[in-house]
Design goal:
82% of the residues lie in helices and 0% in strands.
């Protein structure tokens, strides 16, 4: 039941994320059209102003009346250009806001699933630590910071967390193995009936000597195995 509920919730989040993404793409397309139109208009106005300003200087002495009219036209175009530039900035801000809101919603929806799926993440401190570790791992694997920040699908986040935990367990095993390898063997006390960490060769020699206690060969083999 828990797995079914998880699959249902992740499917709902994925569907919601898909719908939000489709809406975002449509809105971005519309905003991109506006940006292109504003860019074209702004460029045309700039070119016209360059041409007008190069011609108006000659009118100042030859035709003052025409000069004043041309001056008014230039002022009107300059005002229009400022309006275009303000509109461009407004559209860009709208694009940034829409992207931020879409990412925020996807992150919040995904986190609800993850909090249910990973009870440890209800602890804000532990969740934050593991999220930073996951981000660091993904960056080490070649992901860009932008790609990491866009990781909102709870299924992908959980897989990334499992990979992180597996890496940490492998590193812990490797460290433990190095400690064991570096630990010197405990010395065997003379006369000890059950010496610690007895090697297979010693145990074999002891068994053989017990079976052939009167044999010098078995006694010599036991002494050799014990390093005597």
């Amino acid at each position: 039941m828990r797995d079914q509920d998880y699959r249902r919730k992740t499917a709902e989040v994925a569907q919601s994320t898909k719908a939000v993404e489709q809406q975002r793409q449509w809105l971005e397309g519309e905003l991109a059209k506006q940006v292109n139109q504003l860019n074209a208009l702004g460029f045309a106005l700039q070119q016209e102003l360059i041409g007008d300003e190069s011609q108006i200087a000659s009118l100042l002495d030859s035709d003052p009346h025409a000069y004043l009219k041309a001056k008014q036209v230039i002022e009107a175009k300059t005002k229009r250009l400022a309006q275009v530039m303000a509109a461009q900035q407004e559209v860009q801000q709208m694009q940034a806001f829409q992207q931020h809101e879409a990412l925020k919603k996807a992150t919040e929806d995904g986190m609800k699933v993850l909090m249910d799926r990973i009870p440890e993440w209800r602890d804000e401190g532990k969740r934050g630590n593991e999220q930073r570790e996951i981000a660091g791992m993904l960056l080490d694997c070649g992901y860009s910071r932008e790609e990491v920040s866009m990781l909102t699908d709870p299924r992908a986040v959980e897989l990334a967390r499992e990979a992180l935990l597996w890496r940490k367990s492998q590193a812990a095993r490797a460290t433990q193995g190095q400690k064991v390898a570096q630990t010197p063997p405990k010395p065997i006390k003379p006369g000890s009936a059950n010496p610690p960490d007895k090697s297979a060769a010693v145990r074999t020699a002891e068994d053989n000597y017990r079976r052939n206690s009167g044999s010098l060969d078995s006694l010599a083999a036991l002494a050799h195995a014990r390093g005597i």
